[in-house]
Each structure stands twice: as structure tokens, then as C-alpha cells.
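Late entry, evening session. Most of the bench is empty. Finally got around to the prediction I had been postponing all week. Sequence below, unchanged from the version circulated by S.P.
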Amino acid sequence: MIRAHDFVLNPKGAAWSHKATSAAFLWTMGWNLSTGLVVLHDPIQRGISNIGYDAETGNVGVKKSAAAIARTFSEVFRGRGFIEKSGRLTPEETDAMQRAKDLGVIESTNAHDLAGVADAGLDYSPWRHKVMQSASLPLHHAERVNREVTFMAAYRVAREAGLAHEAAVKKAADLTWMSQFDTQASSKARFMRGPTGRAAFALETSTRTSSIAW
């Protein structure tokens, strides 16, 4: 725990590893719209089952959780990629979304982690940061949409199950992490945080994701 805490406060790595992971991401997924589109199935593939069969939300089943996912997807499309712009959220739901952002549930995506946008302090270059941020946009926004959809669907199901606002936010956050995974470098195993492990697994993840997309 002490080592993990130290890594969060002061991420360390080697310049060669950082360049290798960035190159792997650019070669396989940078500016790749197909990769972004293919991951939009995540709330359907994993979100429905996790939301539908959670004891605290009443084990509502596939039908009800699928309906909640479909509703939130439609609102995201109505808001042109952002559920908060749909005009369909209640004040409590708007507050829940803000809390999710504050907790890092929405923006902590695998795209930014692979592209190195989530890291800081290692050969930082404003120009490079902007390029990698631009390259990761398709995948990042697809993953962000997945997280918004899963979180809001889970929040609504939790509220309908009788959970208070605060408890529903926590439950929705937990179900979102469970469905979309915590891909931050700080949450990975220690051998995956080092230069060699980070480069090897970034290459494996980038290749696998791009192969699925193609």
C-alpha cells in the first residue's frame, strides 16, 4: 500500500517505456474511429448483467437493467454525446453525475492511460500532450459515454430500489468500475507499473483492441 501510494503521488518510469507505449497506441488506435465505435457495446455486454443482478439494487434482472441502459443511451445521443446536455436529467441526477466526475468514475479511461495523457511528470511536453490527447479522442469519448450510460442507469435502478441519493451514487460508481474496469496505472499490479511491464502490456492491449475493431 505504501508503494502504491508513493506511485500515485510521484509516478515514475523510463523515457523509453513512455515512448514505446505512446508509439504502440498511435500505431494501433490513434485517431481510430472504428476502435471507438466497437467499444460502445460494453454497457450492453457487462453493464446489463452487473446492474441487473446486484443484491442491493434488488436483482431486477435483464429486462429492467436493459431498459435503463437503453434509456440512458438515447439520452446521450440526444445530448450529442453528453448525457447532461440531453435536458432529461433531474436535479438529483445532475448532482449524481457531478459526483461521479469528482470521484474520477467518468474520465478515468483506458484510452488516456494508454496514450500517457493520465500520467504527469515524465518528460512532460505540452506539444506531445496535445498530440496524444487528440489521438486518444475517439476511444476516450467512447469509453466516457460507456461510463456515463452505465453510471446513470445504475443510479436510477438503485434509486428505484429504495437507496438514498448518497448510497445510490456510491452503488452506481461501484457498478461502473465493475463493468468498465479501473484501468488507471495506479490500480494495476506492481509488475505492470514498471517500465518493462507497462510497455509490454500497453502493446498487448493496443494490439488486441485494434484487432477487435478491425
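Two things to note before I forget:
The mean pLDDT is 83.
The first helix runs from residue 2 to 9.
Will write this up properly tomorrow.
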